[in-house]
Amino acid sequence: MIRIGILGGAGYTGGELIRLLLNHPDAEIVFVNSGSNAGNKITDVHEGLIGETDMEFTDAMPFDHVDVVFFCFGHGKSEAFLKERTIPAHVKIIDLAQDFRIASPTHDYIYGLPEIHKEEIKNCCHLANPGCFATCIQLGLLPLAKAGLLTNDVAVNAITGSTGAGQKPGATTHFSWRNNNMSVYKVFNHQHLHEIRQSLTELQGSLEASIDFIPYRGDFARGIFCTEVVKFEGEEGSPTNPTGEQLAEMYKTFYATAAFTHYTDKQIDLKQVVNTNKALVHIDKFGNKAVITSVIDNLLKGAVGQAVQNMNLMFGIDETSGLRLKPSAF
Amino acid sequence: MIRIGILGGAGYTGGELIRLLLNHPDAEIVFVNSGSNAGNKITDVHEGLIGETDMEFTDAMPFDHVDVVFFCFGHGKSEAFLKERTIPAHVKIIDLAQDFRIASPTHDYIYGLPEIHKEEIKNCCHLANPGCFATCIQLGLLPLAKAGLLTNDVAVNAITGSTGAGQKPGATTHFSWRNNNMSVYKVFNHQHLHEIRQSLTELQGSLEASIDFIPYRGDFARGIFCTEVVKFEGEEGSPTNPTGEQLAEMYKTFYATAAFTHYTDKQIDLKQVVNTNKALVHIDKFGNKAVITSVIDNLLKGAVGQAVQNMNLMFGIDETSGLRLKPSAF
Amino acid sequence: MIRIGILGGAGYTGGELIRLLLNHPDAEIVFVNSGSNAGNKITDVHEGLIGETDMEFTDAMPFDHVDVVFFCFGHGKSEAFLKERTIPAHVKIIDLAQDFRIASPTHDYIYGLPEIHKEEIKNCCHLANPGCFATCIQLGLLPLAKAGLLTNDVAVNAITGSTGAGQKPGATTHFSWRNNNMSVYKVFNHQHLHEIRQSLTELQGSLEASIDFIPYRGDFARGIFCTEVVKFEGEEGSPTNPTGEQLAEMYKTFYATAAFTHYTDKQIDLKQVVNTNKALVHIDKFGNKAVITSVIDNLLKGAVGQAVQNMNLMFGIDETSGLRLKPSAF
Amino acid sequence: MIRIGILGGAGYTGGELIRLLLNHPDAEIVFVNSGSNAGNKITDVHEGLIGETDMEFTDAMPFDHVDVVFFCFGHGKSEAFLKERTIPAHVKIIDLAQDFRIASPTHDYIYGLPEIHKEEIKNCCHLANPGCFATCIQLGLLPLAKAGLLTNDVAVNAITGSTGAGQKPGATTHFSWRNNNMSVYKVFNHQHLHEIRQSLTELQGSLEASIDFIPYRGDFARGIFCTEVVKFEGEEGSPTNPTGEQLAEMYKTFYATAAFTHYTDKQIDLKQVVNTNKALVHIDKFGNKAVITSVIDNLLKGAVGQAVQNMNLMFGIDETSGLRLKPSAF
Questions:
Q1: Any CB–CB contact under 8 A between D227 and chain A?
Q2: Does C48 have pLDDT greater than 90?
Q3: What are the tens digits of pLDDT across the range D204-242?
Q4: Angle, to 10 degrees, between the axis of helix B114-123 and the axis of helix B193-204?
Q5: pLDDT by residue (tens digit) across D112-155?
Q6: Are residues A241 and A159 in the same domain?
Q7: Among residues A31, A195, D194, D295, which is most buried (max CB within 10 A)?
Q8: Which distant-in-sequence residues (6+ apart) come within 8 Å of B17 by Cβ?
């Protein structure tokens, strides 16, 4: 039984992590820390857990009683926390924020995308869990990066559900505004571009091309729907310009051993993955260009689902343990 | 040209009022006051007006240049405002808050429901505009009250759009929570019950029966959908227990001269009135009970649409002026 | 391992049953019959199963290889099917249609509501699974029926998600119409009233009162949100008119051993149970009346989740096996 | 008074046209033809018109009594109709289908985009009304085409509401499927590309670049939200690579005289134009690329709103007559 501590457990990712771990056959939540909610029942904050747990939030951090701690802080707070507190060396850390996603001599966090780092993850003690947009966009492009085919600028359009904006109400998550609405934000300038470029560069060796990413606020709560347009050079069928069949084969091979990422021959819709840890990827060729579609649930494969997948790998248990979720489908 | 001043113009009702009045053939907005937004363009705050106006919010209140002023304050602030400021006697007031909806010797505000008070409205100087739930519920019950048929408790269930909760983001208007959700609030205890009972009593003479009102938060932005169940006594067809045909006829007659409230023989759906000033009402008989359905747009017939209808009456112009709106339908 | 056959597996309930059973630790799907889809992959029809199964629909019905068969036909077709085909005596039947929900000397089907029939279910071979509205409404009223308190007419308002209308597109499930809309149907005349009255009568001994049920079409896909208003007689605190505290205690006691139905002290919202097999119930007292709120997921506790719960009971395994589902919450 | 006949009046565009014309001060609907609905009331088919009209559908076509006829047929049926029937020469035709949008020696229809063809429209007798996606995409690109700046491939992503798919229910407009979902269709292959290229070529002289258009099915009923990414060549500030300020100025100038298309300095959201005939356009520069956002209501500026705008021009009346619509905003 993996013993678990959760820090920052009152937010959306904290709640989703608790929802997952309560049904995880090999894990046990030891404590859920929340400064603002200490003493309150978890069910007072997180919907849908009535009847499943009587736990309360605590302001204690009994690290000696856990094997792993999840950081569900906001971005920037993980690093700040570690400057003030020491986590015992035997306790593994899974950080859901972006603080340690970019490799650096100053830290030993592994970027936790199992599709490319499975062995490193198995052996690591400190893990930086990928961002939601970053996961969805990378899963669409990684096979091409591995083949060295990202030589032209890539047009990326990805639409996210409102839960990506977290629990705090604001103008762009106000129901009256967002319902039946559509908008863009952080055009060409989203912070996830850094980790995306890091992974693509790692696989391709170098990356000159620009990743032109337009993020959209979608009129739904869960999920990310992403399209990516890639342009190839040279004659169709040559190594630099594979045919549609060759591309599909390339993707199938790349994800053949992935636990949750599947290539599908058909067009994808978002709800095929909502409330699961799955990612679906599809590619079509048009002339010298390919259009890739990729979808994930932003709170699961895009956040705590992937974090639990990484935990499973870090503790040497079945990668899918606790993650065989019924899709909501509707 | 009716010259208009708006106080509290930065909120949802203020914005909707501006949207209406910009296209009103007989009205002219002279000033839109907003303390917090003074100096800002109206289009910076109110969506959908780009290209239609260059006006700015002001912190001035040039009452001498207007014929009527609309109070779009929050509840309780109209009365407070009038204790601090004096409105010239020739300037009519239309108050959208609930401060003066209940008749009292301490004020001369007329309750502005044209379906029952048209003559009083035409002659008044100060008008209290009805609440949104109150309008929808009353329109379903008024013909029965006039016939003295509300002798048993009435079961009222009414579902409101999120705009009823205003512009300020909060937990129950957070998109991630409200999307695809349903809940109730202020069960049997909604503040609009006072004005509802006042009108019903006025028409029926007295009202012993309870109005058991359950308000629901709906998963949409605009509109109120209401059902009401009434029980009759005596033999069917007798004066105290009309047949379905008699009831339908009673409703048609009652609303025959109403400008915006229509009886319809068919079942109603909410979107039939969204983005219009209309109300639709339908009644069915089942045994000794009748089920009434009534619908309005909460921001229009439930707020500023009705306020403009009242203004038209108060200034002796066509009741429908500026209110012949294209339904959004979808 | 319980070996399972599914008839009518291409519809919404069939798909949801497959989604559940693929992750059920004690069950194995042997065949999924569908006349119209024989030979097609299950993933061609049911979203969200890509990567989870390679099964195909079949037109065969190898009853000898299964322990239980689920009827996912439309209403009326189960009885018709059994007139043409014989199911071996050792094969249990769980019928999701309404054909056998009303007890009759002509059949031996048990009405499968575990909250009242757990022992009968454990020992039965043929089970009629309750309707979705019927489940939600009964769970709100059963404790009162058991206490003999349903002596006055009950006002029931229940709002259902669109999946209750099934897979076939139509005018009232057309997105352009239903999105942001609200409407009622089958007012006071819904077919589930029969099974509701049957259970209430069973617990209370007799039931003179009317159940006045207004069904609403909601603007969401999954779930039923129900309110029920009950009027009591006599002095508050007397046996015929319990206090709010007494009522809450009555509900807690009634559901103390229920696997998935929980009483909660707080107001409920629909998404607390979406994508789970749970039901939540809450009661408030106002004067001589009580307002009950109850919620379920119409496809799970309202259909196949409850069917699997019944299957677990019929085969003597843990009632919650395969049903500890992560709530979607958003 | 312009006397109007409508053919194919029972569909979504027919209904929206009726909603507009009922409030048009200079127009009068003489007949609404619908084969399938002849004899039925218009309010039986088109929601939201109860209380506004008592007209019935007719199977007659009294062309002698009208000045203009609107074809609201499905695509391909306009041309077929004209092979079987003759419209008197004095009756103008406005065709909402795509049959005559591409210029050809075989017909004299003018492509009705007022932003580029105002004079031709004023003088024409036969008009082909632009497609919805085509209108939104062109309005985002026309100023660049006029400046000869579309020399590189353009990445277009546009999300449409469900009303674009019409009135007939189907799998991808089924509420249970589409609600909270996202998907793409006709990738790089939408039929509107022909008319888009025609206009761009007209303004730019020639067009070598590809318009790479990905259409998305959005989770809302009304509107199109479009982004377009354009790459420039040469040094920033040179004629082939304008600065952001220069681009904004170019757009403002291009649309300075447009009645309904406005450039805005701020980011756009879809609901700013829903239920209006307006289009909003915004451009941002990032390095050598620009990102344009454009929005319209697909049924209004994208269909019958623009058709009425064209009618106004064809009859020499105020271009905005009958089209000063209150935005729904929510």
A1: yes
A2: no
A3: 999 999 999 999 999 999 999 999 999 999 999 999 999
A4: 90
A5: 999 999 999 999 999 999 999 999 999 999 999 999 999 999 99
A6: yes
A7: D295
A8: B6, B9, B70, B72, B304, B307, B308
Would the CB atoms of D169 and C167 count as touching at under 8 Å? no
B160 φ/ψ sector (left φ>0, alpha ψ -120 to 50, else beta): beta
Record: contact B326-D49, CB cut-off 8 A: no
What the block records as the tokens of B304 is: 């500023």
H-type helices in D24-90, by residue range? 42-45, 77-84
pTM above threshold 0.95: yes
What pLDDT, on a 0 to 100 scale, did the predictor assign at position C88?
97
Same domain, A243 and A113: no
What does the pLDDT look like over D85-94, one tens digit per residue?
A: 999 999 999 9
Per-residue confidence (pLDDT) for residue A260, from 0 to 100 = 98
Residue at B319 is within a domain: no
Low-confidence residues of chain B: pLDDT under 70: none
List of chain A residues whose C-beta atoms are within 8 Å of the C-beta of residue B298: none
Q: Within chain B, where are the H helices?
A: 12-21, 42-45, 77-84, 114-123, 132-146, 175-178, 193-204, 244-254, 305-314
- D164, D220: one domain: yes
Question: Which residue range forms the structural domain that includes residue C195?
Answer: 132-298
Active-site residue identified among A72, A124, A125, A132: A132
Percent residues over pLDDT 70 in chain A = 100
The answer to whether position A265 is within a domain reads yes
Whether chain A has a CB inside 8 Å of the CB on D173: the answer is no
The answer to whether the Cβ–Cβ distance between C23 and A326 falls below 8 Å is yes
Cα angle value A20/A24/A25 (rounded, 5°): 170
Are residues C167 and C217 part of one domain?
yes
- Looking at the fold, whether A209 and A64 belong to one and the same domain comes out as no
* pLDDT digits 0-9 by tens, B125-153: 999 999 999 999 999 999 999 999 999 99
Query: pLDDT tens for residues D283-294?
Result: 999 999 999 999
Q: Which chain D residue's Cα is nearest to B18?
A: D326
- Give the residue from C3, C6, C2, C4 showing the smallest Cα distance to C59: C6
B89-105 per-position pLDDT tens digit: 999 999 999 999 999 99
Say yes or no: B165 contacts chain A, CB-CB below 8 A.
Answer: yes
Q: Is A226 a catalytic residue?
A: no
Nearest to B95 by CA among B307, B277, B294: B307
Closest alpha carbon to A270 in A291, A237, A252, A294: A294
pLDDT for residue A179 is more than 90: yes
Q: Is residue C321 part of a domain?
A: no
Measure in Å the smallest separation between the Cα of B180 and chain A Cα atoms.
9
Residues B97 and B75: beta-carbon distance below 8 Å: yes
Give the bridge partners for C281, in sequence order: C263, C294
Domains of chain C: total: 2
What CA dihedral angle connects B191, B193, B197 and B200, to 10 degrees? 130
Amino acid B74: pLDDT: 87
- The chain-wide mean pLDDT, for chain D, equals 97
Is A275 close to C299, i.e. CB distance below 8 A? no
Residues A203, A121, single domain; the answer is no
pLDDT at C247 over 90: yes
> Which chains sit next to A, with 3 or more Cβ pairs under 8 A?
B, C, D
Q: Is residue D234 part of a domain?
A: yes
**Angle D114-123/D305-314 helices, nearest 10 degrees?**
40
CB contact under 8 A, D177 and A271: yes
Q: Which chains touch C (3 or more CB pairs under 8 A)?
A: A, B, D
Asked if C274 has any chain A CB less than 8 Å from its own CB, the reply is yes
Residues C164 and C94 in one domain: no
CATH of residue D285 = 3.30.360.10
DSSP state of A49: -
CATH number at residue D65: 3.40.50.720
Residues B45 and B175 in one domain: no
**pLDDT at position D47:** 81
A29 alpha carbon, distance to own chain's centre: 21
